[in-house]
């Protein structure tokens, strides 16, 4: 019996960690979807989007806390405790930076910038792949699909890097110092979301290599 099969034989029957991770994934997908759709029809005087992002961020905090509570209660875990910690923290970081991006768009009263929605689409696509990877990671049912999703997440992060570079070049061409300060900060927050998604992808890929 291979080490992966031996490890699976000792997994907890309630699968609480995978259930929680899938709840986290569902929350991230809905959060990123609402964020993208909200930016497509953005109104700086309507704080509905900001309030939604705040609510989602709190939901994510609660789910992340529950994962850590279960980590303290369960001796046997589906994979390494340190990896559970990294994965939970990484997923929470995605939500934190989506909320931070929304918050600074409102705080800076930033005028509409179509690049924001370019980023939000990449973020949404990344979250969809995170969910798909976590579904395939459950019971290590399809390691190849996990790796495929991780590759896609990495490619979205690379695209986001290019979008950021091009957007900053155009921004400096405005010669508007205040606009540059405000929008550069927002653009960088948005790009960090894709960085955090890539971190999650790297963690999932590492788990697959260890146990699948």
UniProtKB/TrEMBL annotation:
<dbReference type="InterPro" id="IPR038078">
    <property type="entry name" value="PhoU-like_sf"/>
</dbReference>
<protein>
    <recommendedName>
        <fullName>Phosphate transport regulator</fullName>
    </recommendedName>
</protein>
<dbReference type="InterPro" id="IPR052912">
    <property type="entry name" value="UPF0111_domain"/>
</dbReference>
<dbReference type="InterPro" id="IPR018445">
    <property type="entry name" value="Put_Phosphate_transp_reg"/>
</dbReference>
<comment type="similarity">
    <text>Belongs to the UPF0111 family.</text>
</comment>
<dbReference type="Pfam" id="PF01865">
    <property type="entry name" value="PhoU_div"/>
</dbReference>
């Amino acid at each position: 019996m291979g080490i992966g099969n031996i490890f699976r034989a000792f997994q907890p029957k309630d699968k609480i960690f995978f259930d929680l991770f899938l709840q986290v994934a569902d929350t991230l997908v809905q959060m990123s979807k609402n964020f993208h759709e909200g930016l497509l029809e953005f109104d700086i005087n309507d704080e509905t989007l900001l309030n939604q992002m705040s609510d989602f961020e709190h939901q994510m905090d609660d789910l992340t806390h529950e994962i850590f509570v279960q980590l303290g209660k369960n001796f046997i875990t589906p994979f390494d405790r340190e990896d559970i910690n990294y994965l939970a923290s990484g997923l929470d970081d995605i939500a934190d930076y989506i909320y931070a991006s929304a918050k600074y768009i409102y705080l800076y009263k930033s005028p509409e910038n179509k690049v924001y929605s370019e980023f939000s689409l990449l973020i949404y696509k990344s979250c969809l792949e995170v969910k798909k990877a976590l579904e395939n990671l459950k019971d290590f049912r399809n390691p190849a699909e996990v790796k495929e999703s991780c590759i896609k997440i990495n490619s979205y992060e690379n695209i986001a890097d290019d979008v950021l570079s091009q957007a900053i070049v155009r921004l400096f061409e405005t010669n508007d110092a205040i606009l540059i300060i405000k929008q550069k900060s927002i653009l960088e927050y948005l790009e960090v979301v894709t960085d955090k998604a890539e971190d999650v992808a790297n963690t999932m890929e590492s788990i697959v290599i260890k146990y699948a």
